[in-house]
Design brief:
- With 199 residues, the protein is α/β, with parallel strands linked by helices.
- The protein has one domain (14-197): Uracil-DNA Glycosylase, subunit E (3-Layer(aba) Sandwich).
- 43% of the residues lie in helices and 13% in strands.
- The protein contains 8 helices and 6 strands.
- It has helices at residues 14-29, 63-68, 75-86, 112-129, 138-145, 152-157, 173-178, 183-196, and strands spanning 47-48, 54-58, 95-98, 133-137, 160-162, 165-170.
- The protein has a 6-stranded mixed sheet with strand order 1-3-2-4-6-5, with helices on both faces.
- A hairpin with a 2-residue loop joins strand 5 (160-162) and strand 6.
- Helix 1 (14-29) runs antiparallel to helix 4 (112-129).
- It is globular.
- It binds uracil (URA).
Length: 199
């Protein structure tokens, strides 16, 4: 895990955020730091606003995201929007990004060298967004952000720190689509998140 300089707690408004993200976006669009650049259709940079103070981080783009250039637009994204709606947030109120900006072929798990190559883009995004809370979706994303090998049950209970930002972990929406029994627990995680955001 890399350390980052402490940042003021004030999140930029949408216009300021667009300005801050523009050079980072340009770096991402031109990035050839790992082999995934060769197979990507589009870079999935991330979208949204800093206004809620929440940054959501998933693992990596899938096929629909690679085709559209937008994160979480498939079935997982629909479920994510429902969880956000449950705590009074619209997708547009939060910023949604991934550990990797490019799709791994056949949706395989990110390789360590790919996550390492992408990490400077994510940390630059965090520096621009100044989120109050990061929510990591799924064990894979959490493993790249939080040191150690704690299981999901332990990660979900705790509070972590990524680059100095308070970080929570919940199930990946795709995991809930596969195992709907976890839906109640994910809703409880979002309720806890809402409290921490002061909602
Ligand atoms: N799963 C992820 O982790 N990220 C996406 O953008 C889509 C699905």
């Amino acid at each position: 895990m890399t350390e980052m300089c402490a940042s003021p707690a004030v999140a930029p408004d949408d216009a300021a955020l667009a300005h801050l993200l523009a050079p980072i976006r340009a770096r991402a669009m031109a990035c050839t730091a790992c082999s995934l650049h060769a197979s990507r259709t589009q870079v999935v940079f991330g979208t949204g606003s800093a206004r809620s103070g929440l940054l959501i981080i998933g693992e990596a783009p899938g096929a629909t995201e690679d085709a559209t250039g937008l994160p979480f637009v498939g079935r997982s994204g629909k479920l994510l929007s429902q969880f956000l709606g449950g705590i009074g947030l619209a997708r547009e109120d939060v910023f949604i990004a991934n550990v990797l900006k490019c799709r791994p072929p056949a949706n395989r798990a990110p390789k360590p060298e790919e996550a390492r190559a992408c990490a400077p883009l994510l940390s630059a995004q965090i520096e621009a967004l100044r989120p109050r809370i990061i929510l990591a979706l799924g064990l894979s994303a959490a493993r790249w952000l939080i040191p150690g090998k704690a299981p999901m049950s332990v990660l979900r209970q705790g509070e972590h720190s990524y680059l100095g930002t308070r970080t929570l972990v919940t199930f990946h929406p795709a995991a809930i689509l596969r195992n709907p029994n976890n839906r109640g627990e994910a809703e409880a995680d979002f309720a806890r998140l809402a409290k921490l955001l002061g909602r």
